[in-house]
Amino acid sequence: MENGSTVTNFILVALPLSFVSEIICFYLLFFIYLITLAGNSLIIVIIWKSHNLHIPMYFFIANLSFLEIWYTTTVLPKLLAILSYGKREISFWGCLMQCYFYFVLGSVELLFLAVMSFDRYMAICYPLRYTNFMNPRFCLVLVLGSWVGGFGGTIMQTILIIKLPFCNGNHIDHFYCDVEPLLKLACTDISFIKSINLSLSSLIVLGSLVCIIVSYSYIITAIHRLASSERKWKCFSTCASHLILVFIVYGSSLFLCMRSVRVSSMNLSQLSTVLTGVVTPLLNPFIYTLRNKQVKDELKQLAYSMCIHKANSL
Prior knowledge:
By secondary structure, this protein is an all-alpha fold. The chain is 77% helix and 3% strand. The chain has 12 helices and 3 strands; from the N terminus they run E-H-H-H-E-H-H-H-H-E-H-H-H-H-H. It has helices at residues 19-49, 56-73, 76-85, 92-125, 127-133, 136-152, 155-162, 179-183, 191-224, 229-261, 266-290, 293-313, and strands at 9-12, 89-91, 171-172. It has a 3-stranded mixed sheet. Helix 1 (19-49) packs across helix 12 (293-313) and helix 4 runs antiparallel to helix 10.
C-alpha cells in the first residue's frame, strides 16, 4: 500500500530547548524510562513467581504492567534520540506506526481499567460467586477482548491517514507523531477522518468510563451496607490503587478528546502526552506496590529468596 503523497519523512519540531535543558531532560527521561521498564517488569515477575498472586486482580495488573512497558516505549526512545542526537526526522511509515500504536495502547489501557473495575465489582458485590465467575478462561477472554478492541478500533482511521496527500510541509508540531498535528499537514478535506477520530476516542473513553462509574456505584453501595468499619476500609483499599490510575488516565484522555472539539494549545497537548505516556507508566508499579501489602510481602519474600540463593552459591 502506498501513501497518497510524495512525503517520505517528517520532522518533529517540538521541544525548542537550550543545550543545557536538553541534557537535563535527556538524563531525567532516560532515568524515568529505566525505572519504568524495571518497575513494571518487576511487577510481572512477582505476580508470575508467586502462587499467592495467581488470582484475577493480579492477572489484570500484570497485563497492565506489560502494556505500560510498550506504551512508554512508543514515545520515549524517539524523544531520547531527539534530545541526545537532535535526530528529529522520522520516516513516513515510522510516523504512522508510532501514531497507530500510541493510540492503540492508550485504548487498550482504558479498556483494561474498565475490566479491572468489573473485577472489583464482582469481588465486592458477589464474593461467593467471584471465584467461579472470574475463572481463568473468562479473565483471558476479557484481556484478549481488550487487546483486540484496541487494535481493531483504529485500523480504519490509520488506513485513511495512509492515503492522505501531505503537501503542507513535513514539520509536525509535537515530539511524537500525534494525529492532530499530522492531519494539519494534509492538503485535502480531513473532516471525515477527524469525525472518525473523535467518534472512536469518545466511544472508547466515555464507554469505558461509564463502565467504571457504574461498577463503582454498585461497589460504593455494597461497601456502605457493610456493618464493620474494618471491612469497609479493607474493601475500599482494594480499589484505591485502581482509582488513582483512573483519575490520572481519564483526566488526560478526556482532555485529549476535548482537544478535538475546541482549539487548544499544543503545549497542553504535549503535557497531556507526557502525563499519559511517561508519568502513568512510571507511577503504575509504585501505586501497586506501595499501596498493596500483599505485593509488598511477596516482593520481600522474593528478595529474601534471591539473597539466600546467592549466599548458598558463594
